[in-house]
Amino acid sequence: MSEVADRLAALHAEAFDAPWDAAAFGSLLGQAGVHLAETPDGFILMRTAADEAEILTLAVRPGARRRGLGAELVARGAAEAAARGATRLFLEVADDNDAARALYAGAGFEEAGRRPRYYARADGSRRDALLLALNLPGRLP
Known about the structure:
By secondary structure, the protein is of the alpha+beta class. It is built from four helices and six strands.
């Protein structure tokens, strides 16, 4: 497994209850259109295809949260997606993830859809995923 995939998996495990493993990151990093922006305390992994981009995951180490790093990574990811020709940026977020929803609302994302009962929780419950979208500046008429 690559050193990058191992590093991303370790940080993802700190940030999420159901983290992705190094094999998943290794597979994603090898795909066309996938790009990464990282710092020692966080990263954003995205995919751009044609004129659309998607945030695959955003992770910030718990001890580094609420310091603007998530917003910085979203801005870096959006700029890279626009540079690659994307006009819209999408992501999915659990409807009960208030901190992430606030982060994305602050970046200008708006709700574009809902996937009922998309996320499974450890207790067996399920939560809706909100599909959020952002028009990338300077790319739309």
